[in-house]
Write a structure and sequence with these properties.
By secondary structure, the protein is an alpha/beta fold. The protein has eight helices and nine strands. Helix 6 packs parallel to helix 7.
């Protein structure tokens, strides 16, 4: 607050009453000036702004720029949804939980000695209204899919089979550079229970070696092809460095969704499966699949979260 004072040469003339009232006015202004100095009040000329009490947010003058960012961020999300022909932007997932849920094998999916083996599960225990998108195999390598998922900031987890990705490791390297976790789906995608323990070991550990060579990391997630496994599968996976064997609760295609549960509905923490597929095998493209998926989960009030954040 700026105290405006008259020049002494313009002192008020007139009756004693007027002079007394003027004196009281000047005294009141002096008090206000003292309050302004004590409280740090700011004027428009750039002097110090009022600082808030600790924990009460930014200074009042900073609220305009702070609030101004919110509509801009939302507008950008809406623009990207429009660009990719989504009816509305994907819902934002909550922050990753500070305390990770305990992952156990789904009831009925255990094997003998399960307590010492990687758990097979279809849902992550959480109260968050989130689901997890996982994509298998690797035959389709659509650059538009990569761009779409980056633009929309939709997280997903890939499970790769070497015989399908070896013609273009670089495509999945781009995926990894954008924060996508690349994981083990065996060398040749066999029916693992039909193999010996040694045969399963070659399939799983062999893919671990490829992942290390191509992407600099041995995964801790493994998905058995077709979701089929036995005790030897999980024993071999553990010996190759695998900690978890997630499968799925729903599977999404380009034109429909299939469910494992009889209620045919989403549940918090559900793992959703789809595949790297294109028009040769689907009636559409991977971006078409994403559009169907996002309408399905968003209409039900779910966000897509990153699976690894919950493990």
């Amino acid at each position: 607050m700026r105290l405006v004072r008259q020049n002494d040469k313009r002192a008020v003339k007139g009756t004693p009453g007027r002079r007394a009232r003027h004196a009281r006015t000047r005294a009141g202004l002096a008090v206000l000036a003292a309050c302004a100095v004590a409280s740090g009040c700011a004027a428009a000329d750039g002097r110090k702004a009022v600082e808030p009490a600790p924990g009460q947010g930014p200074p009042a003058r900073g609220l305009d720029s702070y609030a101004g960012k919110m509509p801009a961020a939302q507008a950008a999300r809406v623009a990207m949804a429009k660009k990719w022909r989504l009816s509305e932007p994907p819902l934002l997932a909550p922050p990753a939980p500070a305390e990770k849920p305990v992952i156990r094998a789904r009831k009925g999916f255990e094997v003998d000695g399960q307590e010492d083996l990687p758990p097979v599960f279809t849902t992550v225990p959480t109260k968050d209204k989130v689901v997890f998108l996982t994509i298998d195999d690797g035959s389709e390598k659509d650059p538009e899919f990569l761009k779409m998922m980056s633009d929309l900031k939709i997280p997903y987890t890939a499970f790769l089979s070497n015989y399908l990705v070896k013609d273009d490791y670089g495509y999945f390297g781009k995926m990894q550079s954008r924060g996508v976790s690349l994981n083990n789906h065996t060398l040749t995608h066999p029916y693992l229970p039909g193999l010996s323990y040694e045969g399963q070991l070659r399939e799983i550990c062999g893919m671990q070696n490829i992942m290390q060579e191509q992407y600099g990391k041995r995964p801790v997630l493994f998905r058995p092809p077709y979701g089929n496994y036995n005790r030897d599968t999980l024993r071999a996976a553990k010996s190759c460095g695998i900690k978890y064997a997630p499968i799925w609760n729903e599977e999404v295609y380009v034109d429909h969704v299939e469910w494992r549960e009889v209620d045919q509905d989403l549940h918090p923490g559900d793992i959703i499966l789809t595949h790297f597929r294109g028009r040769e095998e689907w009636k559409g493209t991977m971006p078409d699949m994403v559009r169907l998926l996002m309408k399905y989960v968003t209409d039900k009030g779910y966000a897509v979260a990153r699976l690894e954040d919950y493990l």
